[in-house]
Amino acid sequence: MNEKLILKEDAIINRIYMIRGMKVMLDKDLAELYEVETKRINEQVKRNLSRFPTDFMFQLNETEFENLRSQFATSSWGGRRTLPYVFTEHGVLMLSSVLNSPRAIEVNIQIMRVFVQIRTAILENQILLKKIEQLEQHTQQNSEDIQYVFSVVKELIHKKNEPRKPIGFK
User: How many domains does the chain divide into?
Assistant: First the structure.
């Protein structure tokens, strides 16, 4: 019986990095999820390079790679000889077309769902931030109105009682 593959969301989320302002996944991490060697992914990508423009996949430069390695607190990634490739959401989606295995398809479906969840969370946070800003503006206006009311009340309290003119007919 063919059971559906279920990866924990954290197993995917923890492998998504922000590089050059894009959410990306490393070739090494994708290889682990697909249960293939990293070189197999890179071979398939090179055979189908026209499917992977720079907004789908790019190679890290030395500085980016060093910054990324420093996040892991490890000194080695198993002796890589080349800088890693990273794949954006669209690049990961394109990988399913060049890695034609049932596992790659299942993993890609789960990765796409996580990317959608991340986008949704970001959008919800932006909406929440806008509502908080609106509430702050409204509160600021209310605060100014309350300060005005207090100043008028204080004026009335401190105003000397002047004798009133009698009311009525003379």
Answer: 1
